[in-house]
TrEMBL record:
Domain of life assignment: Bacteria
Keyword Transferase: yes
Residues covered by the Glycosyltransferase subfamily 4-like N-terminal domain: 22-188
Sorted UniProt keywords: Glycosyltransferase, Transferase
Single GO term (MF): glycosyltransferase activity
Species annotation: Paracoccus fontiphilus
Sequence ranges assigned to domain Glycosyl transferase family in this UniProt record: 207-357
Region annotation Disordered: where it falls in the sequence: 188-209
Organism lineage string: Bacteria, Pseudomonadati, Pseudomonadota, Alphaproteobacteria, Rhodobacterales
The protein's Enzyme Commission number: 2.4.-.-
Enzyme class: transferase
Protein name per the record: Glycosyltransferase family 4 protein
Length: 386
């Protein structure tokens, strides 16, 4: 009877992305941080645009290397070619066990050069939301799907960040044996209330005393994230609510719609400021038009905040309608306003408490890291058996 191949030790993992700021970078901050804590003998490299350096400042130490790319337009053809060539050179020099590629453009550019990679390196690809699931013409979506099917053969595994993403991949013909679901995770963040039980934000914030709800938005100010819908909701709510929006236009050149007087825009902030907003707000509004996962929803649930989100993509897997928040159809500002008005203060507290429990059971960074390490180990075992 043949012996089962022993799993070789995991020594080095190289991550690469072209994505500037936003959810992919937050994901990498969580995943790589958890990997550095739990994989104590493993070196981890990250190749990423220079704009992400400050957002990843917490990733440091002798076992971590950040390789910053200085192209101003990280998704231009020349920048993507440079990213792919730089990645191949790095992998050929350092010989990592795993090359983990994140996001569509990096996935296409690097996997196109996959035949140049060392034979022993396993390739893992995570699209962070399939491009063929986004809004667009049927022809363009079919063309993108055809490219993804071809590139799937150059991936040892494709990580789907939600079961929705896995279902979409199968529907568009991505081979099922390449797909594995590893849902996103968030590290626990200490609340100010954890260290000062006497502090009552409801009493210290005058808007809480006046019963003006604080409705948060966090993310890119672009069409995908539905920032225009958020502003329209706040415009209709008028003096019933205040809004605080953290983010900016990173990938869009479109002019922002006029901002109503009850919304304050803070611009791009570090993650500590985002989590502080979650702890002060009454609900997080996530009016996305498409999402592979929707990391901000899990972040808000970690903070015990109710989440009102579009019934699209992975958000449908995260938010349980009527239990951790409410789901609605995208672009329906009037419908969102009605849901907000119908939710009592007790409802919002209940949604937040249920969301916190769901986060602890399903969306921790340690669980994500453990699942990813198990995937890496399976790939190394398969490689050893060849």
């Amino acid at each position: 009877m043949p012996e089962t191949p022993r799993t070789p030790p995991l020594r080095r993992v190289s991550h690469v992305t072209e994505a500037p700021l936003g959810g992919v970078v937050s994901y990498l901050d969580e995943l790589l941080g958890a990997q550095l804590r739990s994989l104590r003998d493993v070196r981890i490299d990250l190749i990423t645009p220079e704009i992400n350096r400050d957002a990843l400042a917490d990733l440091s130490g002798p076992r971590f290397t950040l390789i910053a790319l200085r192209h101003r337009r990280s998704r231009s053809p020349m920048a993507l070619l440079s990213l792919a060539v730089r990645t191949v050179r790095h992998v050929r020099r350092t010989r990592p066990d795993i090359l983990h590629i994140h996001s569509t453009f990096a996935g296409a550019a690097v996997r196109a050069l996959a035949p140049l990679l060392p034979r022993g390196t396993r390739v893992v690809y995570c699209p962070h939301g399939w491009a063929f699931s986004r809004q667009g013409s049927g022809r363009s979506r079919r063309a993108i799907a055809a490219v993804e099917r071809w590139l799937a053969g150059r991936s040892d595994r494709i990580v789907c960040i939600s079961d929705y993403e896995r279902r979409e991949a199968k529907a568009f013909g991505i081979p099922a044996d390449r797909l594995v679901v590893v849902e996103n995770g968030i590290s626990p963040r200490a609340s100010a209330n954890d260290t000062d039980p006497a502090r009552d934000p409801q009493a210290t914030d005058p808007r809480r005393r006046n019963r003006r709800r604080l409705i948060a938005f966090a993310g890119r100010f672009d069409r995908q994230k539905g920032f225009d819908t958020y502003l329209e909701v706040m415009r209709q709510l008028k003096d019933e609510a205040d809004g605080i929006a953290i983010g900016s236009s990173i990938t869009s050149n479109e002019a922002l719609p006029d901002c109503p007087d009850n919304v304050r825009i803070l611009g791009w902030q570090d993650r500590a400021a985002v989590f502080d907003l979650y702890r002060r707000a009454d609900l997080l509004l996530v009016p996305s038009r498409w999402e592979g996962f929707g990391l901000v929803a899990a972040e808000a649930m970690q903070a015990g905040l109710a989440v009102f989100a579009s019934r699209v993509g992975g958000l449908q897997d995260i938010v349980v309608d009527g239990e951790t928040g409410r789901l609605f159809q995208p672009d329906d500002a009037a419908g969102i306003v009605a849901l907000i008005r119908a939710a009592s203060g007790d409802d919002l507290v209940r949604f937040g408490e249920n969301g916190r429990r769901r986060y602890l059971a399903r969306y921790t960074a340690q669980r994500m890291s453990d699942d990813m390490t198990a995937l890496y180990d399976r790939l190394l075992t398969e490689n050893a058996g060849r």
